[in-house]
Amino acid sequence: MKFTFIFICFLIGYVKSILNFKNSRFPKITGFFGLIGPNVERKKTNSFFDLFIGDGMIYGVFIEKGKITPVTHLVETEKILYEKKNRKLSKNFMMMPLYILLNKLNLLPNVMGLANTAFLDNDISISQDKKNILATCEMDKPYAIELDFTKKDIKTLSKVNTTIEHFSAHSKYDKINKKIYSIDYNPVTNKVTYYELDNICKNILFKNEFTTKYSPNVHDFIIFDNNLIFIEPPLVWNFLERIPLIFDKLRETYIIIYDLKMKKIEKYNYKNNGFFMFHYADIQKKDNDILEIYAPLYDNFSFSSLEVNGKYRKIIINKKTKEIIIEKNEELEKMNLDFPKKWKDYILLLKFNGKLIDELVLCKKLNIIKNIKLPKNRYLCGEPQIVEHNFIPYVIGILFDSDDNGYFFSFDMFNIDNSYIEIKLDYKPNIGFHSIFINK
């Protein structure tokens, strides 16, 4: 009996030592990783519209010297608070025009104000252990989210009181000048408005409005070399379709460049078939006349489907000749890529295999540096982050398996085989879009 007890104690100690050894490989970083996305079931999602109408859910992990504390939080939007007091609102597309009208009459909250797309760190620290970030969605104003590093907790504070009606999900923060750059667009009036605000979103420092040829959908934009740059894809109305805003690939795509110093606008058109874009990867200036934009481009796109195919390409804009050329890598053309993350001269892209992401591709310009295959039965739940620790770029993020179990993972971007580690989470993540890492 005594021998059995000693043996069991030894066995427990041995197992613990193995687990501690595995966890010791996790980078000793301290901070918060957050992934935000729509709170909809992955297997019941069949269109972009299904994604966009999901309530914002945060899947978070507080990290303290490599030790993790998982946490989730449903963003308490005005819609969520209304539904708690009244009843659930329908997600049927045909009900949306009525809901939008009732919102304009102040009879309903903004049903599209879901805070489900991305985060913005606007440099607001409440105390040493508390920090605020913004949860964003381009159909509404942002929501202030409090991170409590002592209690390892997340909570919604309120919708941000700003005069901008809609706040770009991919708004940018300028740490040097303490300014926020954002864009609002109106798909009915064909207007795009660029804003510069202070870091609390209270005061508009600069504003400029543009008229577009097509119905605008500016999901992302670039601020580069004192220029605002955004893409105008050929989106037009067809009310015979279930979702009447459609992409007409036979029309031209325009690239808008607005000089923020000279207050001068230039418009370039790609004269071949149109293309659609979600996210920019990188931009480089070759000389005074040549700009090179790296991004996943879509030759076809529909809001009523998830059957899309992103091709990572280089757009060359000749400002002198007004010509646009698109360069391709035939190996990259075989892949469905998006959600680019930049680290130094490298771009890390997520590779979609159907609806699942079980690979990443590391590129330098249009050259493939490395194909990174995730372990068997592990799929990315949205965008990861690249966190540098001891000069090593670690990729960290959230995975799920075929049973929807969640895992927090880490690996050296250049050496997954000898560095991969995962820790099972106590929650099952749904769909994630964009992520953030707050270094503490």
pLDDT averaged over residues: 92
Q: What are the low-pLDDT stretches, counting only 5+ consecutive residues below 50?
A: 5-24
Per CATH, the class reads Mainly Beta
CATH superfamily: YVTN repeat-like/Quinoprotein amine dehydrogenase
The name of the CATH architecture is 7 Propeller
CATH topology category name: Methylamine Dehydrogenase, Chain H
Structural domain count: 1
> Count of helices?
4
Structural commentary:
The protein has 440 residues and is mainly β. The protein has a single domain (2-77, 113-439), classed as YVTN repeat-like/Quinoprotein amine dehydrogenase (Methylamine Dehydrogenase, Chain H, 7 Propeller). The protein contains four helices and 32 strands. It has helices at residues 2-24, 48-52, 78-85, 96-104; strands at residues 31-38, 56-64, 67-74, 118-125, 130-136, 143-148, 153-159, 172-174, 179-186, 191-198, 204-211, 222-224, 227-232, 235-237, 245-247, 253-259, 264-270, 276-277, 282-287, 290-298, 310-318, 323-327, 337-343, 346-353, 356-364, 367-373, 379-380, 385-389, 392-400, 406-412, 421-424, 434-439. A hairpin with a 4-residue loop joins β4 (118-125) and β5. The chain starts with a helix and ends with a strand.
